[in-house]
Write a structure and sequence with these properties.
By secondary structure, the protein is α+β, with helices and mostly antiparallel strands. It has two helices and six strands. The longest helix is centred in the first third of the chain and has 22 residues, at about 1-25.
């Protein structure tokens, strides 16, 4: 009985870790058309492309991708920007994370990801 319990615990732990790895597969990031996103996303994206000005001092800071949901890149490749949330007293959970892309510049890279749940999930913005 004790062996069976140990086997079940080990199997359960492996199942949880395998599920988490699959859920965070960067290839599984979906796309979303810009037109389907809130107007605040449009405004933030326009500011990114213009180089600012941004309302929050942290906008434009390096996004570390610690969650490993986005494709792996060298540190400094991704930058994060606040998408305002109406009624929020703080920065809220919505962000655009911009990749440097082939241009090396987030303003023109065309590589933009949206999260509405503070980095728990992302969708690539299609313009």
């Amino acid at each position: 009985m004790k062996r069976l319990l140990i086997v079940l615990i080990v199997f359960g732990a492996l199942w949880v870790f395998a599920g988490a790895a699959l859920a965070r597969d960067p290839a599984a990031i979906g796309d979303i058309p810009l037109a389907a996103l809130p107007r605040e996303v449009h405004a933030t994206l326009a500011l990114i492309k213009a180089g600012g000005p941004f309302a929050h001092a942290r906008d434009g800071s390096v996004f570390g991708n610690r969650e490993q949901i986005l494709p792996a890149r060298q540190r400094g490749y991704y930058r994060e920007y606040t998408v305002p949330t109406r009624g929020a007293r703080d920065r809220g959970a919505r962000r655009i994370v911009a990749g440097a892309g082939t241009t090396g510049d987030v303003r023109s890279s065309g590589e933009y990801y949206y999260t509405e749940d503070h980095y728990n999930s992302f969708r690539r913005i299609r313009e």
